What we know:
Largest sheet: 8 strands, mixed
Shape: globular
Radius of gyration: 15 Å
Strand content: over 45%
Mean pLDDT: 94
Domain SnoaL-like: 7-109
Oligomer: single chain
Protein name: SnoaL-like domain-containing protein
InterPro entries: NTF2-like_dom_sf, SnoaL-like
Pfam families: SnoaL_2
Helix content: 25-40%
CATH topology: Nuclear Transport Factor 2, Chain: A
Amino acid sequence: MPVRKRVEAFVDAVVNGDHGEAIANFYHPDASMQENREPPREGRDQLIVHEQAGMRRIQSMITHQPEAVLVDGDHVAIAWTFDSVGKDGVTRRLHEVALQEWRGDRIARERFVYDSATAWQPVSSPDNSKD
């Protein structure tokens, strides 16, 4: 079961931008991640490779402070907002809830829940800012 300070350290690592490093430091070697109801990706090394590949496809990622972080024993829920700035300069936003199962002080399983119809919709472009 994670202590709240450990969960907060994970949140800080993600907000500060190096998602691959956060995976390396906070996930079990046999951890899994799952997008909505898609098949899970398995193994920390593969999770890092997948994350790094995604980051190479964009210009930058802005991770906002979570709206909520709930810790209940081995279960953690985090309400995230991410802004992805594409190589085309367009900013797209994702609101998601990460449902995590921790084993000790590391994440063993994580499932991301979001509305796929509104995921990564543009919120601004180089020519026209929208909020």
